[in-house]
TrEMBL record:
Stretches the record annotates as Disordered: 1-25
Keyword tags: Repeat
Bias (Polar residues) ranges: 1-11
NCBIfam families xrefs: PPR
Protein name: PPR domain-containing protein/PPR_2 domain-containing protein
GO molecular function: RNA binding
Ranges of the PPR repeats in the UniProt entry: 86-120, 157-187, 188-223, 295-329, 396-431, 498-532, 599-633, 634-664
Domain of life: Eukaryota
Amino acid sequence: MSNLRLQTSASPHMHGHCTDHHNLPSPPPQVLSLHHIPNNHVLNSPKKPSIFSHILNSSTSLQLLGNPSWNSINKHGFLNNKHVIDVSSCNEMIRDCTDNALFEDAIRVYVNLLRSGFPVEEFRFFPCLIKAFGGLCDVRNSGQIHGHVLKLGFFDDVYVANALLSAYLKCGAVENAVKMFEKMGERDSVTWNSMISGYCQSGDYTDSLKIFRMMIKDYGLYPNRVACLSAVSACSSVYWLTHGREIHAFVLKHGWDADEFLVSALIDLYMKCEDLRNSNNVFRSILDCESVRGNPVIWNVMILGYVSNGCLTLALELFIEMLGLGIKPDSLTMVDVLVLCSESSDLEVGKQIHGFILRFGLDNDVRVCTALMEMYFKCGDPESGFNIFKRSQNRNLVTWGAVLSNCAQNGYPIKALELFYDFMSEHGGFPDSFMLVSVLRACSSLTSKPRGEEIHGLAVKMSFDSNVYVGGALVDMYGKGRDIESAQKVFGGLLSRDLVSWNALISGYSQNECADEALNSFREMQSEQIRPNTVTASCILSVCAHLSVFSVCKEVHCYLLRQGFLPNILVSNSLIAAYAKCGDMNSSWTIFEQMPEGNEVSWNSIIFGLGMHGCTDKIIVLFGKMKEAGMKPNHATFTALLSACSHAGRVGMGWQFFRSMSEDYKLEPQLEHYTCMVDLLGRAGHLNQAYDLIMAMPLVPDGGIWGSLLGSCRSHSNEKLAELIANHIFELDPTNIGYRVLLANMYEDFGKSNEVARIRGAIKDMGLKKQSGCSWIEINNNVSIFVASDCSHL
């Protein structure tokens, strides 16, 4: 539209007429610098073909112009005789073009009117023309027509002013609209409605409701249904249930309760404010009205509301009721029901919904395909999810992002990386921030720092590295990749830090045994007015468990109680483990018993804690109760059981649990289970049996399992086997100083000074240094730390 300039041949009295409005908002000077342009001024021709020309060349246009002969119409669409202009037909053209969103053509008709010598003071279709300018959603263009109207002196017309107000609001120029509104001498219902809806659409819901209140209280005007609709939407967005109920009462009083738009808005309001009873009452009140009942939008709002409030059964029943009444679902209905199936992990119902989608011909809708794919992933059928993705013909960024996210979150990180590289090669390397977050999560799952660094480089190249979501994922990736320095650097470079990024940093510190840094970050986060959540609490409790600092554990527990995080299954599980490791098994057991509902982690945590404290008999009883409660033992359960048997020296029971894993529960023992068994056998003196178990296991032994047996050899003075085991260890990890010191101490026990000198000499020649041992004790809420050769506490 930059090539369309308005020209004006207004009489002098019109210029003087607009001086009362000099305080009104002014568009940018370069747009409003409209001068008196001679009527013979030639405008620049538009660069693209005008649809207006197409209209003029049709039989319809001939009728609109009074059906003149073809030759009497010039190239601009007007009669060759300038004195014979059918103004009403031109006005009708402006209106038709505007109604059909042909905004540039509507403006072109008006410009051609001016070029043909039409006296502008006789033009009466400014509201429609201004609507065309507003339809371009460009504040510069709206400012141009604003200046034009001011110059002509037509601003006193309330219809013209309302049209300008609406144009500014459509362009998002709320400040200009407010200035106009404040200076308007006359306001009607359209004026108020424009302001109420304009504020609402711009996201300023509070001011929208303020204008609504001002209209009623200060000016005594009653809102119409359009104003009520905007006000209800504003209440929904800010969860103002009381004001929403007041508007609902007004709607009922004026008999608008069957208006389908208001009904949908009211249902949405009550659902968002968790008032399911009133939401259902509004919905049921329109079921007898067939014209409203058949609108699928109302059903969609109701179904989505139930899903959002966790009422999945009610949502499914409503969908079945909808089908029973013969109302055809649309694509949004199917998306809502698929979300329902995802939330409830109901694969059978999800498959039935898939059948409905095929029957209703909605399988090519990209939103439905994306929701269908996610449903299969979340319901445990990833193969079908992949097939949906492969068959999809309309993949967009959302679809790609969904498949990457689901792969990363559902245990397919390698597949997520493969798909990401497929996307890069297929689309030229323009992922969005959501896709980068998903693929970084996959790198975190794989603890693949090199791949993560590649994605980090791409994020920097696309200027996403300061994005709070991408930044949080990068911090998490580096933390899990044991590069806490890089995690700190990324975190420090974030322009803003949300709870997720703080959690990622604290979790990284916790996983890398940086306990002090984790606690300091926890305090700093709160100083920045960011409220911790259950994930934060779980990370801090793991730090307390690592430090075995009982006082800090109690402080965190009290904080969680004050913040209302209990009972929460994640927090409760962390508290069970933390108290057990801090030596307070009574508190650990109390929390377990008070949990309204536990999961496998809850049972595993309490079994592990009891095992640490030697309560083997209690563990046996608890394991039986676990099975009675319908909990299926997993690998972590047997790790806790075998560890307990090892601490208690219960060899027979340990063998029983070890064999039960594969025989009764179809769980193949992992390296940690073999380590527990080797430790159990070694502590009991069955050294050869432990060695044979290592040699026979189908897994590659690591330094930890050999080190456990080496410690048992020293305890039972088996020098020959110790030397054999030491050779295995030094082949796996030649620079491990801990096991060399252990072997040297064992030779010292045997009185072999030459061997002791040889091993310690080798340590010195290799430049290895043993980290000083450290212990701490808590007395009267004070923690005292002791290191080797430390005399500070004497």
